[in-house]
Design goal:
Layout lengths: L2 H7 L7 E5 L2 E6 L2 E7 L2 E5 L5 H6 L4 E5 L5 E8 L2 H4 L2 H21 L23
Antiparallel strand pairs: 1-2, 2-3, 3-4, 4-6, 5-6
C-alpha cells in the first residue's frame, strides 16, 4: 500500500501525511497519528470508547513479536476490507480513529505545564539537604 493509495482511501478526511516508520508507515492528520500500515495491512487507532465497535466488525489488533519473543499488542485495529473501497465508511472509521488519537494525546501530561512532574532544584554540595 503506497502513499497515494492511503491518500485515496482517506480522501474524505482532507489532507493526510504519510511518514515511514519501523518498516511500515504512519498516517497523520496534523500531528496526530491515527493509522498505521504494517505488512501491507491498514490499522486504525482505537481506545476504550471505540474498541468494541472494531471488535464487533470482526477486526483484530496489530500485534508483533518483541526481541525477547513476547507478543506486543498495540492500540491499532485492522480496517475492514469494505472501508478500503468505500470513502464514506473509511472517513467514518478514520474520524473515530482521530477522536481516539485526540483522547490519547489529551490524557498525556504536558511537558512543563500543569500536571507535569516537577524537577527538584539542585543543591550545592556545601548546602545541607532538608
Amino acid at each position: 500500500m503506497d502513499a497515494e493509495d492511503l491518500r485515496d482511501i482517506f480522501r474524505g478526511l482532507g489532507p493526510v501525511q504519510i511518514r515511514r516508520m519501523f518498516g511500515g508507515q504512519g498516517v497523520y492528520q496534523g500531528e496526530l497519528m491515527f493509522a498505521l500500515v504494517a505488512s501491507d495491512e491498514l490499522y486504525l487507532k482505537v481506545d476504550d470508547e471505540s474498541i468494541g465497535f472494531f471488535r464487533d466488525l470482526g477486526s483484530r489488533p496489530f500485534a508483533y513479536e518483541t526481541r525477547d519473543r513476547r507478543k506486543s499488542v498495540m492500540s491499532y485495529w485492522l480496517m475492514p476490507e469494505s472501508a478500503l473501497d468505500d470513502p464514506d465508511e473509511a472517513a467514518e472509521l478514520a474520524n473515530m480513529a482521530l477522536a481516539a488519537a485526540r483522547r490519547a494525546k489529551s490524557a498525556q501530561p504536558r511537558k512543563g505545564g500543569k500536571g507535569a512532574p516537577r524537577r527538584r532544584a539542585r543543591t550545592k554540595a556545601s548546602e545541607p539537604v532538608t
